[in-house]
Amino acid sequence: MAHPIVQQHGLDSLVRLAEVTSPALRAAHARLAAARARIRPAGARPDPMLMTGIVNLPLSQPSFSADEMTMRMVGLGQTIPYPGKRGLQRRAAAHDASAADAALAAVRLEVIRAVRDAYYDVAYATRALALLDPNRQILADIARIAEVRYGSGIGSQQDVLRARVEATRVAEMASMLLEQRRASLALLNAALDRASDTPVLNVDIPDRLARAAVATSARDVTFLDASLGARAAGSALPPLATLQALASEVSPVLRQRAAMVAAQAARAEFARSDSKPDFDVSLQYGQRQGRPDMVTAQVSVPLRLQKAARQNPQVAEARAERAALEADYIAARNGLNADVARLLGLAEQNRTLLALYAVGILPQGRTAVVAALASYRTGQSDMTTVLTAESALFASELAYVRAMTDFAKAIAALEQATGSSVLPEERP
Q1: Which domains, and CATH codes, for the chain?
Q2: How far apart are alpha carbons 266 and 210 in whole angstroms?
Q3: pLDDT tens digit sequence for 256-297
Q4: What is the DSSP string of 44-68?
Q5: Where are the beta strands (DSSP E) in 252-318?
Q6: Element (H or E) spanning 80, and its range?
Q7: pTM for this one?
Q8: Beta bridge partners of residue 73, listed in sequence order
Q9: How far is CA 28 from CA 25, 98, 331, in A?
């Protein structure tokens, strides 16, 4: 199904587009509609039975007048469930619909996270490609210096060749990043239900996330203490206990599990009440030839002679299934708490990495490249020194962009787990 390219390509607009176009969300909406449609039939009475026929027709002399008991019959029968059974069935279906509603909310969060993850991966590849331009310029300067030194007889041909090899390495990196960007773009467009190569413009980590990840100025970066491995100070993320409480309260996954437990509880109660008999009532009218018409009324009640072999095992099965679902709920809650703790740790880890790169690694790396290039230009250092400094700087810049991307993805995962925003809302 093709969709027009939206004029605005920001992340928020793409999320809104996914909420309209996502096939997974359409499927979840359809399942919810189906579950809601099952509620009313679940509590409806069984259909009445219309009966018609011939009663007491002699086989030896088929005739309506040969025997006074021969008659034409028409009747109506109805099964009446034992009181309370219909309500239990309706309650179970209503809880199933609640579970489907929670599943829809969970799918919505999954789709939003898929869009954000793919968007952030596209942003990473885009920013990494942008880093290649100054890196390529540095390598070009190194190559020119090597050629000048070689032409002047003070350098070696090996230095010229090494500079060219490093330039080829940059081209190789560009090719790899371009393919990564195409793959991430395809994942993003898949979540939006459109062609894999549909372009998305102006892709970057949102400012709100970037400011939450690291201070704008390196002078504003601080740490909780001076110990090795201390976290970066000023985190905008709530404490772990707050996030876990929010996840337990809001998470649609837990709401779905709770609704499944409630639905099975109603089914277990129905299984217990199913040992109580339903009633079959019928009324029949018989017309006889030349004789008075007759009316027959009857009530049928099943005898639960196989209760130990049939109803009791069904009750045990329903109760065991409820116990399993309750245990699944506890396991899901514990897993959710552990996942929230892991994701918060991942977010804080990337905040700290970004702070370390901002205050030390990147400034020192840039200074090292400038110094090594100047020394090589004047013949005071060799090619290995300048290429090592340049390679280390490029790797650090890539690591910084990767840490920013991983922070953004950790926030997306936390918001999926908690079912709500975990960063303070910005005021206009």
Answers
A1: 11-42+86-275+308-418 (1.20.1600.10)
A2: 49
A3: 999 999 999 999 988 888 788 888 999 999 988 878 889 999
A4: SPPPPEEEEEEES--SSS--SSSST
A5: 279-288, 294-300
A6: strand 71-80
A7: 0.82
A8: 53, 286
A9: 5, 12, 24
